[in-house]
Amino acid sequence: MNNNNKIEFNFFNEIREKETYNQLFPQREIGLAIIYLYEKLIEFNSIDKEFSEKDIHNAFIKVFGHQVRQQTEDYGKYIYSLQEYFLDYNQETQKYVFKDYAYKFCEHAKTILKGAYNPTKIKVLCTDITSLLENIKEEEIEKLKDWLELHYKSFEPKLREQIDFLEKHIANSVEQLKKDTNFSDQKFIDVLRGVESSLDNAKEQNKELRSAYEQTKIIRTLLEEKNIDDSHINDLISDVNSFISYTNRRLTSIDKKLERIQPRIRQLFSALNRPRFNSKVQSFIRYILDESTIENINGNKEIIFPNELKTPLVHIDTPSFTILRKDVELFPSKPRYIQTYKQNKSLIKKNQDKIDKRISQQRKIVDWEKLILTRIDLNQKVNLSQLFFKILYEENDAQVAITALFNVIKTIRNKEKINLSVKDELEVNNNFKDITLWRMEVLKSV
Predict the structure, then answer these.
(1) Mean pLDDT score, 162-189
(2) DSSP string covering 295-353, please?
(3) Is the pLDDT of residue 34 over 50?
(4) C-alpha angle 301-303-306 in degrees, rounded to nearest 5
(5) For 428, how many CA atoms within 13 A lie in the half-sphere containing its CB?
(6) Distance in angstroms (rounded) separating the CA atoms of residues 424 and 440
(7) How far is Cα 44 from Cα 50, in angstroms, rounded to an integer?
(8) What is the CATH code for 11-111?
(9) Quick one: CATH architecture of 115-279?
(10) Is pLDDT above 60 for 184?
(11) CA distances from residue 264 to 146, 203, 257, 267 in whole angstroms, order as listed
């Protein structure tokens, strides 16, 4: 059979069919009835057992309300439609059981809403699949293929799910803070404390999840060491690397969210606590003013505070000191030793020579730059490579030649009507046989 005639599966075209979409994603009430039935079966530990059509009708009645004749007729249509993906009917027993899609439909929704966050579990799974990969030898292509298609593909959605749970946890904490802003100050502070504690917990969980993510970098390194010619396996490895990069971006985004949120909560704490602190200070001052008295003790007026407060010591007698003056003539100060330093004339001369040489170099560079730029302005064709050897010969200084040419190229490269070309030809000079340059020419167009 010719492979060219094989029809490719197109997911979007398949699911866009109205009947297919409605069967996979039934209307709200029908979906709720399936979930209600699923929860009832779990409640009685009979999730894998058969159930009757009456049980399904009861689920519909729970969701739709009171049963009427028209609804009963519709229930039959709903059940018929659900038999495509959700329900399997046994003709002999006239009972129904859930198909695999029904389990996944209910369990996935329940897991997402429950948000069972467990980064430690992910780290264990990560370590396990890393260990499996380490034990696969380079020539064991089939084992590597199984690892990529089975082990890693089952792990990837779990890690993605944990990241989603963590983001949802943070969003719920912030949402709770928004909803509770109308409470009294005392309760609002309690809410703030709860949200801050929740975000601190999220931060720790993010660290744990990032620790698990470190294992994925080991996976990427191990895969990069594999030298595989199979294009299908290389595509799978590329998918792994893309997912690892995606994971890092998500975790970094969560880090930044937490860094932005927590300082604002602390500021809010401070703003809420400040009026309360001021109020307590005012109450304390008012209590002192009301309960304190002034009495005359030994000719001094003193404030007598309430018994609960200790009286502070306001007046302290000035102590008397005996001062002895030092006679400078009897006890003259010792002369200070003045350190003298000798100048190192040879070192000074050496440094001066270096400076003079640097100044001389700079002057020569400027002169050569002016000469080359003048030739270019006069519409002359200038061979920069030959000029390099000319400068090197006359000045006997490679630094002058290199810097002069570099500065000229930097000056003219963005100027209009000046063309700098580098040809695939080597420029040589008999005086400097160990140096070769590409042929560089500059020409000013008219």
Answers:
(1) 64
(2) EEETTEEEEE--TTSPPP----PPPP----PPPTTTSPPPPPPPP-----HHHHHHHHH
(3) yes
(4) 150
(5) 5
(6) 9
(7) 12
(8) 1.10.10
(9) Up-down Bundle (1.20)
(10) no
(11) 48, 15, 11, 5
